[in-house]
């Protein structure tokens, strides 16, 4: 049975995991206080919540959120968690950018959509240009282009017929014959 303090921390982590679109686990063991403050500042600037969490409490929080696709092996070693609530891509980009410049911090894994991701997958998400909204816009644009072309192709004969009929009506109204 967990203590009252641990039960409160589990509830807090359960809430944060439930609200987060992505939770990125980072090993920060060995970071100096100055480096940790720099990391926290970069996370704040990217609107990513960053905190140290005990692996056992984090695992229990994942279980309470019914995240059955999460591999429990990711909850080992010292962990800090970056919770991204709005944009998965922006959160992954902020974490991977810091990790690439740090000699000590190591990207462990992430939880996205109730499943665990590898460090390579998180880095791949971080490399997506523009963020989540731009990716959605590119997909819509890719689908919309051919559909707009097909719409124009199918409506062209009807549009051309109406132009011809309108020209004939204008011609008859002006009193000239079409012969």
Poorly predicted residue ranges: none
Order of strands across the biggest sheet?
2-3-1-4-5
- Could you state the CATH homologous superfamily of the largest domain? Ribosomal protein L10, N-terminal RNA-binding domain
Q: How many discrete domains?
A: 2
Instruction: Tell me roughly what share of residues is in helical segments.
Output: 55-70%
Task: Give the strand tally.
Answer: 5
Radius of gyration: 28 Å
Say what the CATH topology of the largest domain is.
Answer: Alpha-Beta Plaits
* Topology pattern, helix = H, strand = E: HEHEHEHEEHH
Any overview of this molecule?
This protein is of the alpha+beta class and 179 residues long. The protein has 2 domains: 4-128, Alpha-Beta Plaits (2-Layer Sandwich), CATH 3.30.70; 130-179, no CATH class. The protein is 58% helix and 16% strand. The protein contains 6 helices and 5 strands; from the N terminus they run αβαβαβαββαα. It has helices at 4-19, 33-45, 55-64, 88-101, 119-126, 132-173, and strands at residues 22-27, 48-53, 79-84, 106-112, 115-118. Strands 2-3-1-4-5 form a 5-stranded antiparallel beta sheet, sandwiched between helices. Strand 4 and strand 5 form a beta hairpin. It is elongated and about 95 Å long. The chain starts with a helix and ends in a 6-residue tail after the last helix. The mean pLDDT is 86. One of its GO terms (cellular component) is ribosome. Pfam families: Ribosomal_L10. It comes from Dictyobacter arantiisoli. Keywords: Ribonucleoprotein, Ribosomal protein. This is Large ribosomal subunit protein uL10.
